[in-house]
Amino acid sequence: MSLLRVQGLSVAAGNRPLVHGVSFDLAPGERLGLVGESGSGKSLTAMASVGLLAPGLRAEGSVLLDGQQVIGQPDRALVPLRGAVAAVVFQDPTAALDPLMRLGDQLAAPIRRRARREGRDLSAAALRDEQTAWLDRVAIPDPARILQAWPHQVSGGQRQRVAIAMALACGPRLLIADEPTTALDVSTQAEVLSLLDQLVRDEGLALLFISHDLPVVSRIADRVLVMRQGVVVEEGPATRVFTAPIHDYTQSLVAAARRLQAALDGATPTPQVAP
Ligand SMILES: Nc1ncnc2c1ncn2[C@@H]1O[C@H](COP(=O)(O)OP(=O)(O)OP(=O)(O)O)[C@@H](O)[C@H]1O
Known about the structure:
Bound molecules: adenosine-5'-triphosphate
Protein name: ABC transporter ATP-binding protein
Main location: membrane
Order of helices and strands: EEEHEEHEHHHHEHEHEEHH
Subcellular location: Cell inner membrane
GO cellular component, one term: plasma membrane
Shape: globular
GO molecular function: ATP binding; ATP hydrolysis activity
CATH architecture: 3-Layer(aba) Sandwich
CATH superfamily: P-loop containing nucleotide triphosphate hydrolases
Number of helices: 10
């Protein structure tokens, strides 16, 4: 059975359609990338999948998350699914972090929630061990200091690592990562991406990975959906979509990515000047 089955999903703001007729299936352990330019409807598709649309937006169609209908359900019906079935990592880690709470207390919340769900007693010492273990798993050195720190006292990359630890500590089966590295500097981006890749593999999670960057998506995802102006224009295995794109729009994304890579490699051909 699919862990996430989206059928004919549309999202609108009043009369303005923002996402139209999106369908896909995500099996347990599978990795799906959503790619497309800014404003193409990737985030709305992902947020509608967990019932986290902003007020004023209306979703239609069907979204089955672990077999439970999400569309049209009141928030209280969806709370048990969040964290336990699906967790989200956002582009901006401050969205997941409370600026007025120490990082250790923030990380304690999902650890406690999971223990309650699993009927485990959690002593203060066991909680501390789990907090430290999660910081180790996201490769944060000096966990004792970080647990005591406020969000503004650590780097952007460390904040994102803590946000990833909090998402995974809930014990989800699906991780939704919405541009998780876009706000980070280039070398931190690569580290956080390979960390996510490793953690998703270790935990056996399904992944819905959202990015405007097709090469990044094709590295981390098995299958890709390409979105443009709220609709899916191409779908296929990540390597095929990247090496042999069919739709004009996907071809332009691939060409742009190759031009950027060539420029970064210093391999851009020098324009020929007529004699
Ligand atoms: N709350 C809202 N009210 C009205 N329009 C919205 C709202 N949220 C998003 N939109 C619009 O919906 C469209 C799709 O937005 P969405 O955030 O899904 O795009 P995206 O592909 O994820 O792009 P980005 O990478 O820039 O976030 C955009 O035109 C956006 O302006």
